[in-house]
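hiii, so i know i said id send this last week but things got crazy w the move. better late than never?? heres the sequnce for the chain we talked about at the cafe, plus the structure i predicted for it. fair warning i was half asleep when i ran it
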Amino acid sequence: MDSEKIGVFLLDDHQVVRRGLKDMLEDEPDFEVVGEAATAAEALARVPALRPRVAVLDVRLPDGDGVTVCRELRSKLPDLNCLMLTSFADEEALFDAIMAGASGYLLKQTLGPDLVSAVRTVGSGESLLDPRLATKVMAKLRAADQQKDPLAQLTVQEHKVLDLIGEGLTNRQIADRLFLAEKTVKNYVSALLAKLGLTRRVQAAVMVSEIKSGQARHR
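okay and structure toks below
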């Protein structure tokens, strides 16, 4: 392979699609298609030996999916840039692709010149993701983090109120401690219970106790 060219590997179970991609890319002076495969197994076997700079991976395959191929290839070849190609605008697949380390995600309906430009962008080490879809993915990531840590969604004041519930204080006592109106404290309690998926303050007190005992065990 010419060291100045961007080596590309193509994975798609349709030969017509692979041929079209290959012809399109090799019409450009800076690309060289170094290999191709019709199945996930073939790609996993061939790509490490060929060491392309870009792998264009079909998301849906007869023996698996391109996202899994991307994840496994990048675990062996961290410098490999994967561009996912699919017929469907699937946000779930986009989320999975980003988590697998893909650099880009394109629909097969993308026009030829745009696809060539995308491969070139990914080959240069840049990311190529639709900003709107990327925003949704980041929101999903934040939601996943909040599920791991249910307290992450509480405000600073709600954290204080929760801690004092854990100490067994009443709303009036919490109000006195935080210099707030009792009605305001009641509103904080209602809000934090809703965020934590709880219905009674005793459940919140138990949660605080469990969190503190867990922290003590990890010290």
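btw The beta strands are 6-11, 31-37, 54-58, 60-61, 64-65, 81-86, 104-107. thought thatd interest u
miss u guys!!
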